[in-house]
Write a structure and sequence with these properties.
It contains six helices and seven strands, in the order αββαβαβαβαββα. By secondary structure, it is an alpha/beta fold. The protein has one domain: Glutaredoxin.
């Protein structure tokens, strides 16, 4: 009887996560420089997000440091920072090992980084197709999308908006639940 109860709770929990997950997040993608597949619904799990398209050889690459600072500041309050490496603007490293070194070694990134994928146009991954339909497609690397817990884009910020900007912080604060 206890096993049935535990199985029911496990099933209900996964159904609840699936129900709360926006359809565009119901995909698995590979983690940067890893074989590990991450199901985006499991990562998101009803949490607000900051989604960023990144490149390791861009003038905005130093923003990794500020994005990591946001991750450290807001993760305990539920924010998921999710980086999507992309070579759509021809500034990503030619191999994932180099891209991973830039992220993890040079900038100390601990937030989730995904393997390179397309973020614009007809080949854009499902997340960026949805973000573009809700706001706008990225015009360059390091576009930032503040997304509420239901998966709606609250605000889009272009590349030149720094991670430490007041505007970005205010948008993030607006999607976080009070402690």
């Amino acid at each position: 009887m206890l096993r049935i109860f535990i199985a029911a709770i496990a099933l209900f929990g996964s159904v609840a996560v699936a129900a709360a997950c926006p359809q565009y997040m119901d995909h698995s993608m590979r983690k940067l420089h890893s074989k590990e597949q991450l199901h985006l619904c499991e990562l998101q799990a009803g949490r607000p997000m900051l989604v960023v398209n990144t490149a390791s050889h861009c003038g905005f690459t130093p923003q990794f440091k500020g994005l990591e600072a946001l991750h450290q500041k807001y993760r305990q309050r539920g924010l998921l920072v999710l980086g999507f490496a992309s070579d759509d603007f021809r500034q990503e490293a030619k191999d994932e090992a180099s891209a991973a070194e830039v992220c993890y070694v040079n900038y100390g990134v601990t937030f989730t980084m995904l393997a390179p994928s397309h973020v614009k146009g007809a080949d854009a991954n499902p997340v960026f197709r949805a973000l573009a339909s809700q706001s706008q497609a990225p015009g360059w690397n390091f576009n930032k999308y503040v997304i509420d817990a239901s998966g709606a884009v609250v605000q889009h910020f272009g590349s030149s908006t720094r991670p430490d900007s007041r505007e970005l912080a205010a948008a993030i604060e607006s999607v976080l639940q009070d402690d």
